[in-house]
């Protein structure tokens, strides 16, 4: 009976070959990194930020500073994701450039990119401003990519009938964004926003306190408090810091994320009402408040004005008028860009020639070793996140208490707990090898879990009723409904999780414990060692090796699976 059920469209997949944009993008990243490294050499030789107090009374102030930095980075990430994902999804020609660029940007190791940003900005800006901007940039790079992938995946899997309806009614760009694209992607964006904040908390310790040689960058904040407490071995301060972090996460969950999830239930694509929609006491209070009703009236007026403004900026496209003329400025800009790429490539090659052959061999072996750990961590992640995520997304009562726990577990910086793991694991078979895989797992599993929950939440209730009426077995229900519905979300979670695993390798494969460095063979360890010693040619070579490996995997594996999700598993 299950063979007669067709819930998703099926078509023959098309193969995508490597595009010219891949080479241009990779050369551009090489140029940017090499110029940043060259500028970093001219940074002040010695820097030191303000002292970090471990007095628990400063925690509210530090937490407020960290929340402001996180909010600024998240706002930039969301705006960037909405623009970037829409541009890539609407035009095949633009997609051939932006998606390879996204693969490369997502694969750039955050902790090897940070010293270049810090030193480059400190060479031209005051230390405090450079440190603040660098922290926001680092948090941005930990928040943006999964939002872009989620938004892009939602736009590419909009049902054809809804897409055709918007074309029949001649929606302009603003109306299409407001009434179709954003509502369809709302559930996925909210869950990935929670993951973005969790990822930002994960890298907050590195963003607010970072050392490069004799240069010590510090910013007052919750991450710097936890880092200073860990460095000094103050268990009392670590407990206070982790407690403050958990308190902030729970407050954000109850005051922001749970109300948003309850509100987003209206955008679920289904023909019948869900049995148990997500609830939120804060959302119920806001809906019944007279003050909020008055504020909503003012917001409606502002929304109407915004509609008129955006309608004026985004007129209805006239398909009868199409011009293919390219202004001379396009050719001039392309020529200047080509010259910059050539010059930057020349400078980068000069720096790479300084790397001896022995280090190149170590990089090749390191990439292979790190790849094995990434694959192991991803397989372990998929083994438990799929069943747990489906149970959470389809059972709101379970989600009510499991969601805050998942956010807390995802947000607690694994780098703060890593000394405990090292103490326990070093005496077990495998030692640092096992510890490295565990830390990668802690930094990547949440990307998959939150996307699986979003996919399970978005399964229409009427399709679930249909599966029950047909009396499908549990395996048939998973094969014909759950797994096909989860597939696009699963690919989004897996591609961001794999990128996170490569990033986490930098702190997982090299760790200074009690003045005695512990390391394993891997490209992450090479990047960490090059950063600590200020060996910029090796840092550039190892970073480029990681970028090339990750972008190649994205092109050969994840991009094809994205295309499969778009063509085979579009909900119709």
What are the salient characteristics of this protein?
mainly alpha; 2 domains; MetI-like fold; globular; 572 residues; single chain
Protein architecture, described:
With 572 residues, this protein is mainly α. The chain folds into 2 domains: 58-268 and 353-568, MetI-like (MetI-like fold), CATH 1.10.3720; 279-316. It has 21 helices and 5 strands. It has helices at residues 20-40, 59-90, 92-107, 110-124, 127-156, 160-168, 173-202, 204-208, 222-232, 235-264, 281-288, 290-313, 328-352, 357-394, 396-411, 414-425, 432-457, 461-469, 474-508, 523-533, 536-568; strands at 47-48, 209-212, 215-218, 510-513, 516-519. It has a 3-stranded mixed beta sheet. Strands 4-5 form a two-stranded antiparallel sheet. The radius of gyration is 24 Å and the shape is globular. The two termini are 20 Å apart. The model is unreliable at 1-18, 39-47 and 319-325 (pLDDT under 50).
């Amino acid at each position: 009976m299950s063979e007669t059920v067709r819930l998703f469209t099926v078509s023959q997949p098309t193969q995508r070959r490597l595009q010219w944009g891949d080479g241009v993008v990779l050369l551009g990243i090489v140029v940017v990194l090499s110029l940043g490294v060259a500028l970093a050499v001219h940074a002040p030789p010695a820097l030191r930020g303000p002292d970090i107090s471990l007095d628990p009374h400063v925690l509210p102030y530090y937490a407020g500073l960290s929340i402001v930095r996180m909010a600024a980075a998240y706002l930039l990430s969301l705006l960037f994701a909405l623009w970037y994902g829409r541009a890539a999804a609407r035009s095949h020609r633009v997609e051939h450039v932006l998606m390879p660029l996204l693969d490369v940007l997502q694969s750039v190791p955050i902790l090897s990119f940070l010293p270049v940003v810090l030193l480059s900005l400190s060479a031209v800006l005051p230390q405090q401003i450079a440190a603040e901007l660098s922290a926001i940039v680092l948090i941005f790079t930990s928040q943006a990519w999964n939002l872009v992938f989620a938004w892009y995946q939602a736009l590419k899997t909009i049902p054809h009938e809804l897409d055709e309806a918007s074309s029949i009614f001649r929606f302009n760009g603003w109306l299409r964004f407001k009434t179709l694209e954003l509502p369809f992607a709302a559930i996925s964006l909210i869950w990935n926003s929670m993951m973005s904040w969790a990822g930002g908390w994960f890298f907050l310790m590195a963003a607010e306190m970072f050392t490069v040689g004799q240069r010590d960058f510090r910013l007052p904040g919750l991450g710097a408090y936890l880092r200073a407490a860990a460095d000094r071995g103050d268990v009392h301060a670590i407990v206070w810091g982790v407690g403050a972090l958990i308190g902030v996460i729970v407050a954000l969950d109850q005051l922001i994320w749970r109300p948003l999830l309850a509100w987003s239930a209206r955008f679920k694509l289904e023909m019948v009402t869900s049995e148990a929609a997500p609830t939120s006491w804060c959302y119920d209070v806001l809906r019944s408040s007279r003050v909020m009703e008055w504020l909503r009236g003012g917001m409606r007026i502002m929304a109407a004005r915004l509609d008129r403004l955006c309608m004026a900026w985004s007129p209805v496209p006239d398909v009868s008028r199409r011009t293919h003329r390219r202004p001379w400025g396009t050719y001039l800009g392309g020529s200047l860009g080509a010259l910059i790429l050539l010059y930057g490539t020349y400078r980068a090659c000069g720096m790479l020639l300084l790397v001896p052959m022995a280090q190149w061999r170590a990089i090749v072996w390191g990439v292979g070793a790190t790849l094995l750990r990434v694959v192991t961590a991803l397989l372990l992640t998929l083994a438990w996140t799929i069943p747990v995520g489906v149970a959470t997304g389809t059972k709101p009562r379970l989600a009510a208490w499991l969601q805050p726990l998942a956010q807390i577990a995802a947000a607690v910086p694994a780098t703060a707990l890593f000394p405990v793991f090292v103490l326990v694991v070093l005496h077990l078979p495998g030692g640092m090898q096992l510890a490295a895989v565990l830390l990668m797992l802690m930094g990547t599993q949440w990307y998959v879990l939150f996307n699986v929950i979003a996919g399970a939440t978005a399964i229409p209730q009427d399709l679930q009723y249909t599966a029950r009426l047909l009396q499908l077995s549990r395996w048939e229900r998973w094969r014909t409904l759950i797994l096909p519905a989860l597939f696009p979300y699963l690919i989004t979670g897996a591609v961001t999780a794999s990128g996170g695993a490569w990033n986490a390798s930098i702190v997982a494969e090299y760790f200074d414990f009690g003045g005695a460095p512990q390391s394993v063979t891997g490209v992450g360890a090479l990047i960490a060692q090059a950063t600590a010693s200020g060996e910029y040619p090796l840092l550039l070579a190892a970073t480029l090796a990681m970028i090339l490996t990750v972008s190649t995997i994205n092109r050969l594996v994840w991009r094809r699976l994205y295309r499969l999700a778009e063509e085979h598993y579009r909900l119709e």
